Amino acid sequence: GAGVSQSPSNKVTEKGKDVELRCDPISGHTALYWYRQSLGQGLEFLIYFQGNSAPDKSGLPSDRFSAERTGGSVSTLTIQRTQQEDSAVYLCASSSQTGGTYEQYFGPGTRLTVT
Amino acid sequence: AQSVTQLDSQVPVFEEAPVELRCNYSSSVSVYLFWYVQYPNQGLQLLLKYLSGSTLVKGINGFEAEFNKSQTSFHLRKPSVHISDTAEYFCAVSTGSSNTGKLIFGQGTTLQVKP
To answer: Which CATH class is domain B3-114?
Structure first.
């Protein structure tokens, strides 16, 4: 079956512009996670959605970052007024249920470059 | 707070030799432990996980790992590596108490298999 998909695969933007990154989780998966992979910081948790519950935003690095999940499926990560330190690969993952015992399936990522 | 330390950033090894990638974690609560592999320009793929029970866990592609609670370690091993095992390997932890399943990753170990 179809895995987690992300778009675009690559995004180059100018400093100060806003960007939107999209994630389509595996159909039927209720939990969705965003992570960031950068050279300096490694892999970091950003935000987590589970059904209709309030998201866990504890990993968002600043208020320029926000995310939403519409209809319990597709998620969009928005970065406003991008900075060069935002350059990274943004990974999305989904799992069938919440909790540490359930495998997270990762998408291929969106590589963001801020010039 | 939990943290994960991967003791080697790079591990070069010859084909058909055994390999061990080291991982230590710190947590004041019970944890679930994972190893993920990332091939070039791809997302993360789960190799194996420890949730409970037997401390020796077998995963895909001939990999196995042993959970050692007293040493807070979860080292990954393979008795004979192939060129195709060249990739980056991430150790990760999630806590049972948080129940969100969000993963805390180590910095990664690049396994370089040479012919």
So the answer is: mainly beta
- Choose which CATH entry (3.20.20.140, 2.60.40.10, 3.50.30.10, 3.60.70.12) describes domain A5-98: 2.60.40.10
Which residue does chain B place closest to A108, by CA atoms?
A: B43
Which residues does chain A have within 8 Å of residue B53's beta carbon, measured at their own beta carbons? none
Amino acid code (one letter) for B114? K
The mean per-residue pLDDT over the stretch A63-81 comes to 94
From the list A4, A31, A106, which residue is nearest B101 (CB)?
Answer: A31
pLDDT in tens, B69-109: 999 999 999 999 999 999 999 999 987 555 678 899 999 99
Instruction: Return the H-helix or E-strand segment holding A42.
Output: strand A42-50
Give A98's contacts in chain B (Cβ within 8 Å).
Answer: 99-101
At A101 the three-state DSSP class reads coil
Residues of chain A with Cβ-Cβ distance to B106 below 8 Å are 42
pLDDT of residue A72: 78
